[in-house]
Hints:
It is a single chain. Helices cover 45% and strands 15% of the residues. The protein is α/β, with parallel strands linked by helices. It has 2 domains: 4-184, Rossmann fold, CATH 3.40.50; 209-311, Arc Repressor Mutant, subunit A (Orthogonal Bundle), CATH 1.10.10. It has an 8-stranded mixed β-sheet with strand order 3-4-2-1-5-6-10-9, sandwiched between helices. Strands 7-8 form a two-stranded parallel sheet. Strand 5, helix 2 and strand 6 form a beta-alpha-beta unit. Helix 1 (16-33) runs parallel beside helix 5 (159-172), helix 1 (16-33) packs across helix 6 (174-184) and helix 8 (228-234) packs across helix 9. It starts with a strand and ends in a 5-residue tail after the last helix.
Amino acid sequence: MGERRIVAVVHDGFQLLDLAGPADVFAAAALIARGGYRLDVAAERAGPVPAHHGIAVTAVGFDQLTDIDTLLVTGGLSVPRHLHLAGPIAELARRARRVASVCSGALLLAEAGLLDGRRATTHWLVAEDLAAQYPRVQVDADRIYLRDGTVWTSAGVTAGIDLALALVAEDHGTALAADVARGLVVYLHRPGGQSQFSTPVRTSVPSREPLRELQAYIDMNPAADLSVPALARRAAMSERHFSRVFTRQVGMSPGRYVEHSRADAARRLLESTDAPLTLVARDCGLGLPETLYRTFRRRWRISPADYRRRFQQKGA
Length: 316
């Protein structure tokens, strides 16, 4: 197989790492394999294109592109301002062997109709927007990357590196992808099905001060009695009224919020301490190690022990 041409689509205000991460993966693969990839940066108009923090890259215009193997669309906070690029992106995609997006670049693929009827992921911050604005897309926000046919999507920012490694593995085998990962000093292979571990509890900020204080109390005291009756007493409300008001203002039920908060507390302890799993489970209000295990498998698709091995901070 000859040289594969990767075309990365950028726009004013794009996320630089969405481009730089995959670009370095493909460049390292080409260096190690002595060929195989060529990366071009493309934009609506040729010339310098600034990333969100001002650093600019030089792009060719869409009209200058000929053969395309892989079309890679970058994301960034500015994506909603550039949905007019959907038409050109759809045209470029028709000429490409496969299409991929990093982070919120999935919004551009969705606007172009390229995700209709497909499973896709994106940065957890925009996953709800993707699902709401494009109901024909099957959004799975709990993934590092996803492949559905010839279309690949990835989660936020550094997940683009995982996506690019997976593309290299598909093209040239896992041995080359492993060599690239070692050369870039990144984790060899985070499976696409692995959860976006760092996703915090996503909620709305309650408008009522008592509920804001209660939310902070839950997060700071995971081992306390956080049952609905106990929380309703602290909020000076009846249980029924408290559950209704909390769910409306926070965006999830009290029980679900408590479960998520305790899981995040356990995650932080696993990252920062050597405490046995029995103590982690107890101190986070999860009770038994079995409950801790089930919580991690359900929420992050990994065991607590495996999570600690991968993410524990040095010196913990």
